[in-house]
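Re: weekly structure request thread

Next one in the queue (227 aa):
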Amino acid sequence: MPRPSAAEPPAGDAGPSVPPALPTTERGRRMRARLLAAAREVFERDGFLTARVTDISAAAGVAHGSFYTYFGSKTAVFRALVAETMDDLYASMATHGEAGPPDGSPAGLAVHRIDQANRRFVAMYRQNTALMALFEQVTTFDPEVRALRRAARERNVGRVRHSIEQLQRDGVVAADLDAEYAAHALVAMVNGAVHYWLVLDGDFEEERLVATLTRLWAQALGLPSRG
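Done, posted below.
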């Protein structure tokens, strides 16, 4: 008998064929959040492939059947974790709208915002290191998780592009810089370096890494670096 692919849930983990709707009551939202927290605990402890819905239900302290009121399968709850975590992670990289030193120049304020965004991203990534490693694994065999990650990445690139375009309108960044391609390159730089450090155990010092990323980002946009 052929074994199921890694994307298929083990026996007992398959739920209803129609995905459950998002809860509309406060109680329902709290229960869904509780199940997500339990799923995160189980996935980080056991890994995606060996985690089971029964383990998630037990960690949440609910009946096995209650799980399927909110999620159709183990894969469905994992996808929800991906969407939530990636959005939170990439939202931390937004570099516009943050207050800075009151006496700073427009360029100096921009560099300050870049530095603070990089620090937030590192902090968020550290909080989610185990999940980020799992995301990398599951994207190799789950097209929907891969699509969710790509969509979150593209939303983040859009935020960074918007920041660059605002700096161009303010006359701080050269108008002929391709804001879209620059945003893709800068996001890839930060994400790749932090992933190497935290997931692959790269030998980096946090302060040196953040300072270097900020300097490279600033210089790529033609802004004065901090050193």
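The chain is about 65% helix and 0% strand. Residues 143-169 form the longest helix (27 residues).
Next request, please.
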